[in-house]
Specification:
Length: 124
């Protein structure tokens, strides 16, 4: 049975992007909090490739199931304690992710304002 969608594909994409950016924020903050934990391996979410595949799919169902891929940094050992958190890199990722989240949130707000204006007739 086909699912009924209230919003367009762009709105769905923005929702998925915000969800994944929120999850990534939690992972990055966790990395920063564990910078002194021996043996801790930094984690991140990669979703660029999965999102590109979902957008090419003919059905919206694939986009609805896009979650990103958890990656663990095992390559870079920062200290003798086998901890792979590079605090400068994690802070940079966190700032970038926050900026991207805020940009997407602004786009969502803009789309909802446009819909509200259309419903109320103010967009004429």
């Amino acid at each position: 049975m086909s699912q009924v969608h209230l919003f367009d594909r762009t709105t769905d994409l923005l929702k998925v992007t915000m969800d994944i950016r929120s999850r990534r924020h939690l992972l990055l903050v966790g990395n920063i909090a564990n910078q002194d934990t021996p043996g801790y391996q930094a984690r991140d979410i990669s979703f660029k490739d999965e999102l590109a595949r979902a957008l090419k799919a003919p059905s919206r169902d694939r986009l609805d199931r896009t979650e990103g891929v958890l990656t663990v940094n095992t390559d870079e050992t920062v200290g003798n304690d086998l901890n792979t958190v590079n605090i400068e890199l994690e802070m940079q990722k966190l700032a970038s992710n926050t900026g991207n989240y805020n940009a997407v949130a602004s786009m969502v707000g803009w789309k909802y304002r446009m819909m509200g204006d259309s419903i109320s007739g103010e967009g004429r």
